[in-house]
Write a structure and sequence with these properties.
Blueprint: H1 2-23, H2 42-48, E1 51-64, E2 75-88, E3 96-99, E4 116-121, E5 135-138, H3 144-157
Antiparallel strand pairs: 1-2, 1-4, 2-3, 4-5
Length: 158
């Protein structure tokens, strides 16, 4: 009897350890990058972007995904914005940007109505990801790091 009592705490410890270990496993997602390729610099992202601008999201809504995305997502997130500052190129004439629903590992930037963002757009693509340089939500555009980042982007635009 005493032998079975001493085994119980060991079993509880073992099961707890296994459960915690399984919870720490990280699965590969669509945003995984090739570890052999260097992470692009801010300057490289800026030069690849067709448009870089600061915007205030005024509304966010879930809409049907276009036909070319329906296999992966039946819905996408669409954000309407007002341009605060144009740094390079031109923002979309529709004053809308798009993203897949925010999720772990999918490279999206979470859209939050009422927050500010720095958007980097590639060519005519209005889909926002952080790997292309976009950042946000920004709650305080006057914050030290945000001001420094904007100064760097303005310098790259010259």
């Amino acid at each position: 009897m005493s032998n079975s009592i001493s085994i119980l705490p060991r079993l509880i410890f073992a099961f707890s350890f296994v459960a915690i270990s399984i919870g720490q496993i990280s699965f590969g997602y669509a945003c995984s990058s090739d570890p052999r390729k260097p992470v692009p610099t801010e300057q490289e992202l800026f030069s690849q972007a067709s448009s870089v601008f600061v915007a205030h999201l005024t509304s966010v809504s879930e809409v049907s995904a276009p036909e070319d995305m329906k296999g992966a997502n039946s819905k996408i997130i669409e954000g309407s914005f007002n341009t605060i500052e144009l740094i390079k190129g031109a923002p979309p004439a529709s004053r809308k940007v798009r993203s897949v629903p925010y999720g772990f590992g999918n490279c999206t930037v979470p859209f939050l109505a009422g927050a500010d963002y720095i958007f980097f757009l590639q060519k005519e693509d209005d889909y926002i990801t952080f790997v292309s340089g976009s950042t946000g939500p920004i709650i305080n555009l006057d914050g030290t790091r945000v001001r420094e980042k904007l100064e760097q982007l303005r310098a790259l635009a010259k």
